[in-house]
């Protein structure tokens, strides 16, 4: 068997066997098949797609390329949530302590920012002392104690995905539905969750630009995950505008705490509570999403999720006192403001342009080895639907350095779209697929 023949078969639209996929993935992990051949295969998959059988085989082979989390001895249920990526999306930080307060364990293995989308681990790393690279024993202990734990993917857990994930980002093959499905599910099954809720985003700031493609990805995740014996629900959510009022690593941690204190923006809370409600249902704590949401809202009002959020910071090595002292003031000294250029209404603030400006500011990265800034980001004072007059403050912007600020400001100015009349209200959660 040769890699070039497997690439050729996929290029020509043939269905690959489990053995062929296993030969390619196994050889890549072992260092026997080079990046350039796997890149060619990924591009062939991007254009030719994969059958459901191929996707299931790829997912299972990636899962079995390394170790899985052992959660035996810890009482469940274990339910996790995964987002396909967006701008200002910090729902994981908010919903994990909410569902934990209701008796659900959330074993969360997260990623870092790549391209225009943010990374949960980069946000957590902005907290002084916080450790997001837990050893398995630490992960188990914190999960049992706090009800949730946050860690990154180790070299031993699904190494095939760790390698392929980085390769896809630099070869323009990120948007391939079979590759996204296999990447997400291999990691999520490896972390030990019994059930999964997927936040599949569509719109300018998402990888899936329209709802139809988003639904295809959602159905692929649901069908493949169900075939692997997991309980799966997906929500199709709008990512045409940044989610919430903050975009940036420390800024988004701050906003997450605001949400747990009852001061969160309406759009962010709507998406978070709808996702959390499904987690509560899959965890057997509610009969339907309506009851699940009510339980989540009651938990928030009681204050326990906030306590668990701060307890987790301490459990993972963070300095809670310092974090709270830094709240509201930990910002880059390099800053600017974006003000309204004309009267009327803000039609929307384009999430795609904001996300790419964020890379220049230092929030995200173009390459996996790039460093990010904890203090860079954007605060949105006004968003889509708000009425404006010339000179009204729309955004405050913080950058890692002056060149980054200079590169980002034109993109941020262009991201603001104006209208002479009030735009229609966005439907944030379009559909449930399960």
TrEMBL record:
E.C. code: 2.4.2.4
Keyword Iron annotated: no
MF-aspect GO terms: 1,4-alpha-oligoglucan phosphorylase activity; thymidine phosphorylase activity
Chemical reaction(s) catalysed: thymidine + phosphate = 2-deoxy-alpha-D-ribose 1-phosphate + thymine
Biological process annotations from GO: pyrimidine nucleobase metabolic process; pyrimidine nucleoside metabolic process
Alphabetized UniProt keyword annotations: Glycosyltransferase, Transferase
Domain Pyrimidine nucleoside phosphorylase C-terminal: 345-419
GO CC annotations on file: cytosol
Domain of life: Bacteria
Transferase is among the record's keywords: yes
Pfam families the UniProt entry points to: Glycos_trans_3N (PF02885), Glycos_transf_3 (PF00591), PYNP_C (PF07831)
Enzyme class: transferase
PROSITE patterns: THYMID_PHOSPHORYLASE
InterPro entries: Glycosyl_Trfase_fam3, Glycosyl_Trfase_fam3_N_dom, Glycosyl_Trfase_fam3_N_dom_sf, Nuc_phospho_transferase, PYNP-like_C_sf, PYNP_C, Pyrmidine_PPas_bac/euk, Pyrmidine_PPase_CS
Similarity-based family: Belongs to the thymidine/pyrimidine-nucleoside phosphorylase family.
NCBIfam families listed in its UniProt record: PRK05820.1 (NF004490), Y_phosphoryl (TIGR02644)
Subunit structure: Homodimer.
Protein name (Swiss-Prot/TrEMBL): thymidine phosphorylase
Protein species of origin: Treponema primitia (strain ATCC BAA-887 / DSM 12427 / ZAS-2)
